[in-house]
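Page header: ASSEMBLY MODEL / two components / 356 residues total.
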Amino acid sequence: MSSHLAPPVSDADHIIGPADAPVTLVEYGDFECPYCGKAYPIVSSILDRMRGSVRFAFRHFPLTQLHPHAQHAAEMAEAAGQHGQFWPMHDTLFQNQKALGDEDLVSYAARLGIDRAWADSALASHRFASRVREQFLSGVRSGVNGTPTFFINGVRHDAGWDEPTLFEALQAVTMAERR
Amino acid sequence: MTRTDPDSGRASTSLGLLPAGAPAPDFALASGPDRVLRLTDLRGRPAILVFYPADWSPVCGDELALFNELLPEFQRYEAQLVGISVDGIWCHQAYAEARRLRFPLLSDFEPKGQVSRAYNAYRQKDGFSERALFVVDREGLTRWSYLSPVNVNPGADGILLALEALPSNAANIGASP
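Prediction written out in full:
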């Protein structure tokens, strides 16, 4: 139905890539979702291939009833973000989808140099829960209907997200923007 | 009140579903081994009717999982969501347990598809319900309907917009985010 990203990507997002890139890719994802796990190396590879010409933002869309660890994983990513470690945590979580219990999450934080007790209390106090929920709801309003859902320059990408398809879609938008 | 799809501008009624403004046909469907849910039981609060093809199918799974996550949002409008398919009660029970669904699944099982037909949301040649959404207001009038291609998860944005637009909610809740 509605398929336009709202709100648009802003400073409130976790972003990699140049601000003036001709194309922005947004993923709504769930760290415990196996499909997002499959998409992770694809997105990484594409970002590598298009380095300098694509900007990437990740927003949380945890399906908490299906994936019991997804909410805390998302909160831990936000907690790490507080210490400038969102992307390392994002990578760690997708590389360890089978080990996302609270103790695992805290140990990943510690490995990134974040105080263990602080990380533990960030989860216990749900300090970052509202930020995660806010992103989830923005996804619902933007027409996210499952994970992963991608938006390219604000428009939902309904074709496949295998590497050739996603790469081609990004290239096409890049060309159009540069014309 | 006529309602059009916010994105395409296409009138949802052009696809043949029971249109917005029509009284929602009452039903009495099994919601478990010894429970029956009537639409009139929900009178006084908005109802969200989710017709879907089948338990266990991949798209239905994603769709119902999404709605399951949004129950607190629907609750803000006092809305009750129910799923309806032609699956039997034991199938529904196993499915709801496996997916931890926290809303009723109703069996449009005997006579098969009778309620789905009453909403023009039945696929005669396939023998199962369409993937269709209805928002029914507190008085039992259909306020919004949407027919999704059978293999496309419709998402929940349309439901939320329709709930927001209900006059009772405009008065009670005001402009909500």
